[in-house]
Write a structure and sequence with these properties.
This protein is mainly α. The protein has helices at about 1-20, 30-35, 35-40, 45-55, 60-65, 80-105, 110-120, 125-135, 135-150, 155-160, 175-180, 190-220. The two termini are about 35 Å apart.
């Protein structure tokens, strides 16, 4: 669930921002550079910042909710909200990566195609679905594959914010492997390594799927 939700939101938000910044309006380059800040920051800084923001007692998120009359939420200590909290933090970090790759892909789409479609009466939504999205498929495949490999191995953010808890509600393969191998008084290196191998196998399977899809696209 952590991987699927993060990939979906990172791609959709990154694609929306890439299309937005492709308009070449004033200060677009400056704003695009600002969006890279979450990606450039060390993960420990990002995770610590989100931990402070989502703190149940002194976090700015609960302070904002209180200002609107909403009861405070135990973002990091509630089994119902801990996974959501780490997902939001990871989406915030991964969106700039999707933005950079998809924006570079948009640069290769000829402007003449949009001009011809506009002359034929196509609106902005039709131009996106008929021109932009199909021509971005190769770049989208690379973006999703790299995002998948990165998200499968996310460890720092989850461990700093929730340590996989409470009650394993935010545990992933990466945190599970570390906890088995190093997080207990009696380390279980064998089971920890086995869980780590599951990550390797998952990344390999998706890599083979990507190569097969690319081969079909090349033949067609």
């Amino acid at each position: 669930m952590f991987t699927a939700v993060c990939l979906a939101f990172q791609y959709v938000i990154g694609l929306a921002l890439a299309v937005f910044f492709n308009q070449h309006f004033r200060l677009s380059a400056t704003l695009r550079a600002l969006f890279l800040v979450p990606w450039l920051l060390p993960l420990i800084v990002s995770a610590s910042t989100w931990s402070w923001m989502l703190n149940s007692d002194s976090g700015v998120v609960n302070a904002a909710l209180h200002a609107f009359g909403v009861d405070p939420v135990n973002w990091l200590t509630s089994p119902s909200w801990s996974l959501t909290s780490v997902i939001v933090a990871n989406i915030w970090i991964g969106v700039p990566f999707n933005l950079v790759l998809l924006h570079s892909g948009l640069q290769s789409v000829p402007r003449s195609l949009y001009e011809a479609a506009a002359l034929d009466g196509a609106n902005a939504w039709q131009r996106f679905w008929r021109i932009t999205f199909p021509l971005l498929r190769p770049v989208s495949a690379v973006t999703l594959l790299l995002g998948l490999v990165y998200t499968l191995k996310v460890f720092d953010i989850i461990w700093i914010m929730t340590k996989g808890g409470p009650a394993d509600s935010s545990t992933t393969f990466a945190t599970w492997s570390y906890r088995l191998g190093f997080g207990n008084l009696l380390p279980a290196f064998g089971p920890g390594a086995a869980v780590g191998n599951l990550l390797v196998a998952a990344a390999l399977v998706f890599g083979l799927v990507y190569l097969r899809v690319q081969r079909k696209q090349a033949l067609s």
